[in-house]
Amino acid sequence: MKKNLFRFRLAQLRSEKGLTQADLARELNVDSSTIGNYETGLRFPRPSQLIAICDYFGVSVDYIMGRTDIPHMAQFEIAVRGLPVELQELLFENEALPVMEFVADYLEAGVPLDDLRGFLTYISKIRQKIQELPPEK
Question: Mean pLDDT, to the nearest integer, of 76-99?
Fold first, then answer.
């Protein structure tokens, strides 16, 4: 796991909310030095504390740990489950992170499914053409 990325993500999330380390410590019921230690990488939270931090900021553990760059993966997955099967297949066929992030933005913005279908179909065609290219010498 990327414990190093955790400290940066925590500091970023705290900063985005306009909180000081002391503010966040009060919210999580810990000493402010604990938050400082997390952000400098001197300490790492227990699993229960890690979950509390993620719940507070509304992000997934995968996000705060650096396993994904999609902060709300659970919401993304729920939204994807509501898509027609053909779109789910297109999406996971094109699971490169930038595509996933773009689709997450599409879903959050309420873009019509026909537009999403067109986008994913276009990406699939591009991937096919790339795969058909002769290998470089």
Answer: 61
